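Listing S7. Sequence submitted for prediction.
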Amino acid sequence: MAWQSSVAASVFLLAPAAAFAAACLPDALGVARTIEVGTQGGLQVGLKSYPRSLALNDHEIVLTFDDGPAVQTTGPILDALSKECVKAVFFVVGRNAEALPFLVKREIAEGHVVGHHTFSHPAETLRQMSEKAAQEEILKGFEADDKAAYGSASEAPKVPFFRFPGFADTPELVAFLSARNIGVFGADFWASDWLNMSADTELDLILARLDREKRGILLLHDTKQQTAAMLPALLRELKQRGYKIVALVPGANPPLTRPAPEGWTSETDRIIAEVFAKQRAAKARRTAGEPPPGPAGSSPGAEPQAGGSGGLPATIK
């Protein structure tokens, strides 16, 4: 990884700026509007986790990417976004930002927003850590991200946008972030790109969910090969189907939000509870010396199911 980072960084520094700012296509998707998001006193949005989201209009989409940067996939994803002149929010993992600061700097140089996703994306999730350890994981991520992006870090992150790994928040951690004027972003729908599927299957899945939801914050991962391969086609389809991209930037005033529909419940809380229950059951079986159950299959086209290894579901990472 060290030599890859060094070589890639050298390429980035030597390449002319125009290499990362290709002229937009005449019919590029572009950004329809920009929302300034103030987070004073805290903010929690995204209907998968919270009972409200940004007040987006019909056919308006916010693109967000988690877990990067990654040396093989973040660059092609930035290329695709640049070609269509659209902007996204990248919720970066601190240790990845430390390893690949040139990609974080490139995200900022090309007009994207760099938010935060903890330092190490712990497999056990922040919900299963002590409050002190979870706070330290968050703060270490802020510091690593800002040092990678800007060369230095202060007490408060420059961009007050945060996403919990696996959306596994706690009331105490939300209060901790709110007291520091940090906004917490969930999502309104998922690409489910943590599942093993082809780029075509992922594209079909996203478009089907888009056509059902009509608007919202979309969660993707810039660490996934199939997402990098799929993104150019997705952006073209969004243009053809009349969807518009909304960019988010930090601001002074709280954004307009919309409430969840009547009868709303947190889908992520349901999935997390299922996963933790399965973990407890598996631990009990191991203690009793029982064999594990056979693997359960899942369809990439289905709604996310609880499962995955190492703590929280691959379903909502």
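Caption to Listing S7: primary sequence and predicted structure tokens for the chain studied. The mean pLDDT is 87. Residues 283 and 289 are 10 Å apart (CA to CA).
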